[in-house]
Amino acid sequence: MTERFRAGAGRLCLDFIRTLRYRGTPAETEELPDERAWGAWVDQFGPFSSPVVPGSSRDARAVREAVYELVTGSLRPASRQRLNRFAASPVPAPSLAVSGELRWQAADPGSSMLALVARDALDLVTSPEFSRVRRCAGERCGALFLDTSRPGTRRWCSMEVCGNQAKKSTYRAKATAP
Q: What residue intervals traverse the membrane (predicted)?
């Protein structure tokens, strides 16, 4: 499967909030505009073995914004209620297929993925690792990520993209300086 969405933030909930790319900038891009995109995100990040056709993407965007508020410390009461409601929903359940393969199933895969995201967000903000959530230092990025480096000094969400761009900019600036 080709990855359509950015991964690697260190937690499912942080990867999920990246679906509003370049948040707060003129280049802000909604990556979950419809059910097809929401299903593609579930297919990429979820445990299901076959493609998912979830219901409305409206709940997905609402949960994403509630998770963002929670992680950034600006949680409103309605968003807290939304997160708690989705966290209480059923999550995907494992089952053993006749072939011996582990398969995951849910009556409503979209809602069960939102339950996983909401539970992950609640777990993150109540864990010691929450102090290691960082905002990318990339000029245009600003994505949140979990810094798992030993010294806790990681600056970019992705060394391959944002870190590389920052280093290129620094190099160019030095090369053109008088």
A: none
More confident residue, 41 or 26: 41
CA atoms within 13 A on the CB side of 122: 17
10 Å CB burial of residue 175 (0-12, 13-18, 19+) is: exposed
Q: How far apart are CA 13 and CA 67, in angstroms?
A: 7
Rounded to an integer, what distance in angstroms lies between the CA atom of residue 33 and that of residue 28? 13
Residue-wise pLDDT for 145-164, tens only, equals 999 988 888 888 776 667 56
The tens digit of pLDDT for each residue in 32-47 reads 999 999 999 999 999 9
Measured distance CA(110)–CA(62) in Å, rounded: 13
Distance CA 50, CA 146 (A): 29
DSSP character at residue 98: T
Nearest alpha-carbon partner for 6 in 25, 35, 26, 32: 32
Ramachandran class of 106: left when φ > 0, alpha when ψ lies in -120 to 50, beta otherwise: beta
For residue 162, what is the DSSP state?
Answer: I
Residue 146 near residue 17 (C-beta atoms within 8 A): no
| Rounded distance between C-alpha atoms, residue 32 and residue 161, angstroms | 22
Partners of 21 in the β-ladder = 29
